[in-house]
Design a protein that fits this description.
It is a single chain. The chain is an alpha/beta fold and 289 residues long. The protein has 2 domains: 47 residues; 227 residues, TIM Barrel (Alpha-Beta Barrel), CATH 3.20.20.450. Helix content is 49%, strand content 17%. It has 11 helices and 8 strands. It has an 8-stranded mixed beta barrel with strand order 1-2-3-4-5-6-7-8, surrounded by 5 helices. Helix 2 packs across helix 3. The radius of gyration is 26 Å and the shape is globular. The termini are far apart.
Length: 289
Amino acid sequence: MKTPVRDPRDAAYEQALIYAREMRELYRNNRATAQDVQARKETAERIERVLHDVEALNTFFQPIMDLRTGRAVGVEALSRFTGPMARTPDVWFAEAEQVGLLPELDLRAARAALGHYGQIPHGAYLSVNLSPDSAHDPGFADLIGSIPCNRLVIEITEHAPVHDYDALALALTPFRRSGGRLAVDDAGSGFASLRHILRLAPDVIKLDVDLVRGIDLDPARRALARALISFAQDIQATIVAEGVETEDELKTLRVLGVSYAQGFYLGRPGPLEERLEVERRARPRHTPA
């Protein structure tokens, strides 16, 4: 049987179709790349505006309470973005990381918080959040070199990756030698926080909000918290529980041996002046169990 002869016009048509598909794909890819470049440019411009607008970023402070005395032993500085820049802090810091401006935004927030350093009562400390990459920035060394560090805590968050623990520890050495303390944030939320604890030997371990929430009702949460508390005692670190929202959570944390905590139930974030005024007026809301 004779093989049918293929019409050359059919082959040319098929090649034309393949070429058209390839061109459409190339066009889509180029368009997506252009859109991505434009989006990154717009994001970077937004971050730059925040960096240079003194009114765009405000600092609120949340008290860290001694559960034995009911008094504030420190405050954590929390960034809040207002006006046309009003979006949640996690969005701003995530976008800054995407466009390579996280150290700049981190240090901008830290400088704003440290502007209130002189108002912190004697005997209390200020806790400031910082990403691992920001600790390597020359601006961090300049920042800590301008203040006494003995009442300052730097919190390294679990959500930011550490690419070189030895380099990070080296960058933090002048701060710690000056009396500053290191905290690992979000402990119990993932393996990264445990790695931070093992490699950085922090002075403070902060129990994650998701671990604390409902701890009075969940034996698994209590077991994990108990393990972290025992570990902290072995390495002579202080435990601070975050996100306390109910009396039952507070009671459970006391039973587990937690001495320090923060959360809406103990005190909401607000301007430092308001927090200090409340502290001056208020008698302890909670007495030891």
